[in-house]
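Page 42, continued from yesterday. The earlier attempt failed because a stray header line got pasted into the input along with the sequence. Redoing it now with the clean sequence only.
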Amino acid sequence: MQLIELLSTEPVEKVSADADVVEAARLMRDHDTGALFVVADGRLAGVITDRDIVVRSVADELMRSARVRDIMSVEVVTAFGDQTVEEAKELIAEYGITRLPVVDREHQPLGILSLASLENKEEAQKKPLKVTAYKEKTDSSGRPHKVPLRTVYVTSEDSEEEAKGVAARIVEKEQRTPFVADGLATEKMPSKPAKTEK
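This time it went through. Structure tokens are written below.
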């Protein structure tokens, strides 16, 4: 799954490097965010966080005179929108950061993700499915019907076909024999069932 799929459709909050720190703080308050993209010529120039304001501005009594460019972080670890969730998690772990700005290949800001939001949004994208293996039988009246053999609950972010493959592997592993059925039926579940397979 690419990071662009996890970003919300809400506009990215930006601030100019020439803005004063009070303006940046008000933007954070008004948009209920702890970080803003600092942009120059439409490209990411840095990031300013609520911690930057406290540690580099308030603590040094610069709140009224400082500009965003004076206290922003300019060496910013970023990810591209077409990178995967796993790559983003590796960046967060490698650099020990709490927020990961996401940009496009022209370095236009797309959004900010945290490790918690990555995990929560990735989980929300997964589709809980009930996969039932069945045999086709004919009753005494000659009418065909499906006889359920085994049901497996699968949580998958991909297609129903992949979920069927996962279910077949689970049954093969449990029974230690090749999976044999006439077909597999899937049903979307309203919420994640107790037994899941990732």
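Notes: The helical segments are 21-31, 50-58, 68-71, 85-95, 115-125, 160-175.
Reminder to self: strip header lines before submitting.
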